[in-house]
Amino acid sequence: MTVPDEQPGSAAHVLELVANGSAASRADLVRELGLAASTVSARVQELVEAGLLAESGAGVSRGGRRPRLLRIAGQGAVALAADLGSRHIRTGAVGLSGDAFDVDDHAVDPAAGPEAALDTLAERLAALAERQRAAGRTVRGAGIGFPGPVDADGSRIIAPARMPGWHLFPLRDRLADRLGLPVLLDNDANMMALGEHRAGHRGRRHLVLVKAGRGIGSGVISDGRLHRGAHGSAGDISHVRVDEAARLPCSCGNIGCLETVASGAAIAAALRGEGLAADSTADILRLVENGEPHATTLVRQAGRDIGAVLAVVVNFFNPEAVVLGGALAGAQPLVAAVRGMLYERCLPMATSELTIGAAVCGPNAGLLGAGHAVLRRTATVPARRPTPSAADGPHASAAGHG
Description:
Layout: H1 11-19, H2 26-33, H3 37-49, E1 53-58, E2 68-72, E3 77-84, E4 88-95, E5 100-107, H4 114-134, E6 138-146, H5 171-179, E7 183-187, H6 188-200, E8 207-212, E9 216-222, E10 225-227, H7 259-262, H8 264-273, H9 281-289, H10 293-317, E11 321-325, H11 332-345, H12 348-351, E12 355-358, H13 365-378, E13 395-397
Parallel strand pairs: 3-6, 6-7, 8-11, 11-12
Antiparallel strand pairs: 1-2, 3-4, 4-5, 7-13, 8-9, 9-10
């Protein structure tokens, strides 16, 4: 049985409610879902027969028979997750309860080309999979967040800036072949948006996440689902032209893009031009925390530039929350400047109930989003081959099963 997208009343939704503690019995599920008891029982029975749910005794009676309690079966299913950055790979396992564990960071340089990065990624994930199996867990697949554009099929990398050799590289299928597992691939900001939505903003149906790190990216949640657009490029604000960038050349081939003035790479370059040691976003944050005036000014201006672009997005899309993630979101002057620009430039109707703030998942947001996407899409009976879904979000390559 393949558990489909987490639509209300679906098997995936039932599994999610039990996993996160919202429901402990069939009666709880009936109340949560508003469905007939017979429908809920059928969903539960499917999951029990698939080995994903188990019954564990009786609960407290509320006037009738004592309800049979439900729990995640055995050690439960896990997904492998990886978040690629400009200089490292962060890996971890994600369980049905939504927690990330066995998290590790490993230095890697994706700009050196895809083959070396693929080798490192496959080795780290294969070792992670073995540790999970040794602990009695079932590995359902792997989810990957990549710092660049991914095609509409979720299979290949498309013309990533500053990363020669990656254009049209079939990362999903190559990694699936190496791991013998289904693989989901998407842009890292999309994976972060999924993670933040599930972990910190579950009740909101419309959300925009901005990843402000060495580069700038954005992920969009529309009506509770990841919105990728017609060709997978929805949310790309990095190459929107801004006044502050004037005629600065961008890696995309255009001039005046937001990335040329508001990204961590651009800020670090400007600081080095002033004789300050700034090779990474961590260096930028350190300078801001130490009160270095030039660094603080540049970070605050970056926040204003990002906020100016987001103001158009907020007026047009009318989200319930704007979430700022990535390393630069740790700088309060940037967050404050974004918030100020949104209140200054957006319609009062668009901001009256808008939540604006830093991400709550920290550096694990991408892992949580990638892992949750895998578990939601590829939870299967181990003896049967997974079938990828064609619904929203990342796409799967079903090269095997765990």
